[in-house]
Amino acid sequence: MIERVDLSSAVSNAVCTSSNANRCVTSVRAASPKSATTSNTFWYGSLRETTRRAAVIALLATAGGEMASVGAAPIARPNIVLMMADDMGYECVGANGSTFYQTPHLDRLARSGMRFEHCYSQPICTPSRNQIMTGRYNTRNYVRFGLLHPREITFGNVMKQAGYRTCVVGKWQLKGGVNGPRGFGFDEYCLWQLTRRPTRYPNPGLEINGTEVDYRKGEYGPDLVSDYLVDFIKRHQQGPFFAYYPMILPHWPFQPTPDSADWDPQERKEWPRRKWNRKHFREMVAYADKLVGKVDNTLRELGIRENTLLIFTCDNGTYKGITSPFRGKPVRGGKGSTPNAGTHVPMIASWPGTIPSGGVTQDLIDFSDLLPTLAEAGGGQLPTDRKIDGRSFLPQLKGQPGNPRDWVFCWYQRNGKRDGNVKRFARNQNYKLYHDGRFFHIPTDELEKRGLTPDQIDTTRAAVRDQLKAVIDTLYAEEGSFPYKREAAADRSGKNKKKKKKNA
Ligand SMILES: [Ca+2]
């Protein structure tokens, strides 16, 4: 049943602000509880599970001994905005060396803050989102594509417990039903692909705080979710607030943005693959950058920029059909694969007055590090009933040596099957070792075509290989404690099968 609802109460006024009221929504309905759970109540969306999980988190928050304080010294609590583009590899940012893509706002953030040359994501969306939100390697909590297990605790939960107002806007794709984002600690949300999968760019369908909203007047999805974020920031400018912005751009379908010469506000469909091209991808990267600038400028205009830690990264490498000129050579996108083209991503952090300007660091970062870093910045506490793999890099942001990593780790299997096709590797800035023994010197073999032969492995390289092997062995030994075996098995037997949707 479709329930007509009053926009003023059901949808945040961000949807119909004075600036966009003339192109406001044309169709709104409350998301039905059925659409939240469909055939998959075993997994998520069940009231019982949500209640049980909330109780666990509340218990963790009140049982002092159960939680570990991350930061010992009193700290000023900054606002935090974490932006994560979708499918935009390291080679797509001007500050990283691109002259092909136009990213003036990101370049300005890099100049005002710190740029990371060795940040590594997972090869594809859901694995990265699981890891960045929970601070845990996929080996511990990854069930399958398109799902974050409801018993996981995210940086949303941690920051909310720390007293932050929390919001998530952009792309979700982690199931959970209308209550999912709130269960993961977010007070508010404006998302694409929560309980359904409509189009995302021109005339999109979104879900806003439990309400499905369909747009039909030429609106652009990335504008709408960033409008919501700007409004959230304005409403909570007294802080502290935490906003997680997993951006919709510049993921396929590659088609015109409102800034493109061929923009068509009447377009209702996602363009088919045969029409995708690099020109539009390039324009989408520029638009993503523009939205980064929109958030940055909002913080400036409100006078809270110096009290806000702003981080930009990306969930995985560029789509494989896009080859970009970069530092004098062509770089083919490698989304879905483990070499640099799939996992080497941009990261820029800006916090004027706290992060020294113009810094470039070689320190290793992986996606498990975000949660402890945000927790330390905000005085949050990490759950102690589970292993958190990340390491805070807040000291480095403050210009201190900190405790940088010697390695990063990746456990990757898109469908979650714990079989012989799982890829595991550990790496540092220059060397990368896979579980099967393949060992690469990345600066001379970025595509991982050759591998080091025994005669190329001197004592120095052998020591590195031994160190990386110890990392893999340790984490491999812990795989048996994966807590969601029963659910994963049921999922694969078809018990929890949901109708197939287009993979996005
Ligand atoms: Ca992605």
List the topology elements:
Layout: H1 7-10, E1 27-30, H2 33-37, H3 47-62, E2 67-69, E3 79-85, H4 104-112, E4 114-120, H5 125-134, H6 138-141, H7 155-161, E5 165-171, H8 180-183, E6 188-192, E7 205-208, E8 211-214, H9 221-235, E9 241-246, H10 278-301, E10 308-314, E11 323-326, E12 329-332, H11 340-343, E13 344-350, E14 359-361, E15 365-366, H12 370-378, E16 381-383, H13 394-397, E17 408-412, E18 423-427, E19 431-434, E20 439-441, H14 459-477, H15 485-493
Parallel strand pairs: 3-9, 3-10, 4-14, 4-15, 5-6, 5-9
Antiparallel strand pairs: 1-8, 2-16, 4-13, 6-7, 7-8, 10-13, 11-12, 17-18, 18-19, 19-20
Helix pairs in contact: 9-10
This protein binds calcium ion.
Explained architecture:
This protein has 504 residues and is α/β, with parallel strands linked by helices. The chain has 2 domains: 33-255 and 274-403, 3-Layer(aba) Sandwich (Alkaline Phosphatase, subunit A), CATH 3.40.720.10; 412-493, no CATH class. Helices cover 28% and strands 19% of the residues. It has helices spanning 7-10, 33-37, 47-62, 104-112, 125-134, 138-141, 155-161, 180-183, 221-235, 278-301, 340-343, 370-378, 394-397, 459-477, 485-493, and strands at 27-30, 67-69, 79-85, 114-120, 165-171, 188-192, 205-208, 211-214, 241-246, 308-314, 323-326, 329-332, 344-350, 359-361, 365-366, 381-383, 408-412, 423-427, 431-434, 439-441. The strands form 4 sheets. Strands 1, 3, 4, 5, 6, 7, 8, 9, 10, 13, 14 and 15 form a 12-stranded mixed beta sheet that branches. Helix 9 (221-235) runs parallel beside helix 10. The radius of gyration is 22 Å and the shape is globular. The chain binds calcium ion (CA).
